[in-house]
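Q: Protein A?
A:
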Amino acid sequence: MAIFINLLPYMDRIDDSKELLDCWQGGLEIAMDGPNWTDPINWTVEFERFQHHTGPISVHSPIWELNLASARYEVVRNYSFEIYKQSLAWSAKIGAEQVVVHPSLYSTPLFLRSQSQYYAKENLKRLGEEAQKLGIDMAVENVGFRKTALFDQEEFVRLFEEIPTISALVDVGHAHINGWDTPALIRELGSRLSAVHLHDNDAVGDLHLPIGEGTMEWTGVWEALRSAKHPFHATLEYRRNTPLDVLLQHVKLVEQELK
């Protein structure tokens, strides 16, 4: 188990991330939609701020305006595929261990679920093969809420049986909102689980609260993660502007729970 910190807390103030880099030698998860979610980013230049970090790097590929599962528009699916393919190549170039991928982005009032699943699987298979060639782990995250969730719990587990070139990232906050049995999910995935996003919420909104500040029941989650017999990333994915001292305190919390 390796602990990572997602740079979401610094999304609005990326230059302040130096305070974290100066004291943290563990894993970093860099969001390619950053640093501020609004301006196009020259990622070759942007990576210069992280290039001397001695810990492992994970990359969260872009989310916004991309949809691998678009059931209506082939051009959107194909465009999204190309952006994710570029993200894989860039991530491999900078030596990242893992790339996190969202398989869909819900944006329509009528969700064509079965068709969206079909196209998502088709593109995830192609991207998984590309990631395998590059020697990088492609971790697919559980996304969408309630009726707009692309996969339910059982379907999410089966996804990794159907596509052997990808791995699973369980976002525990997303699972909580959808009423999934997160400890059972972790155990069912077994060695196909390569990462977890750790944060809390009220089971209504995706709040990215620090652990213990929402309504999640953590005891079973910790027990399930401790039972894992293989390496995985445990990533704190806390909301924007979470203070540095909270991040570092919660790194210690995760270490204590999972050691």
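Q: Protein B?
A:
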Amino acid sequence: MNDNASARAARLAQEPLRPSSPPTGFVQGAAESVRDIWARRQLLVMLVRRELRARYKDSSLGFLWTLARPLVSLLIYYVAIGRFLGAERAIPDFAVYVFTGLTVWQLFNEIVASGTGSIISNAGIIKKIYLPREIFPLSSVGSALFNFTVQLGILVVAAVVIRGLIVDRRLLFLPLALAVVVVWGTALSLFLSAANVYLRDVQYLIEVALMVGFWASPIVYSWEMVSGAVSDTVGQLYLMNPVTLAVLGFQRSIWTAGADVPMPDNLDLRLLVALAIGLVALVLAQRAFSVMQRNFAQEL
């Protein structure tokens, strides 16, 4: 036994020392973190699958509920609100309009809300082994994108059945708006998930903020109503919200009945600027996460 222990100790002594956390340099640290996450991409995929399975693990229909919920929501907006309450008189094809905005908002909401609690919910793993902790909020992003894909498919089918899609350059707004939501949602998820370890009130604050944020975008009302009710200065401040721009971008792509409805000037340029700023925010959030993660094991 002593010989075996000595042999193991000798082999361990020959192994190079590896840091237990990524470098703190801004550029070098960010690049190293990306390489570390990429090297563990299979683990990330497994965590996404775990989150999806855990959501419906005790149900008989399983993933079919992912289809059922948005379908029922769409029918409610079409029949109860659009027809019975007369919302279609103010906004044509109200069901498609509101479901378009909800599809964007629910993606952003799920990324931020699930990501904020992702580190605490995986405390047992984090305290036992070292791995890039960014994987946990990123797994929330992957799970949210899966649900978004299902809901987007239902939305596109509904839009085609009700009025059809206009196939032209306006469809390019969709991937651009999606990139804005994912980048900003991921940036907030990374920063808030780390901050939530030190201040547990963050997750409750975010619930309230997301509730308010829902009404800060033209989801159940139109941009035309906003522009007609506020000054130009307030309108420009309103459009500084990247989620608002993403909602408008999706509406421009999918809401065929609103093809001639006024939209903000230079919406494509606004989305590009929001995406560029979001990428900077994403890098800053990752570096802040890298600094805060050093004491995760102790705080958890």
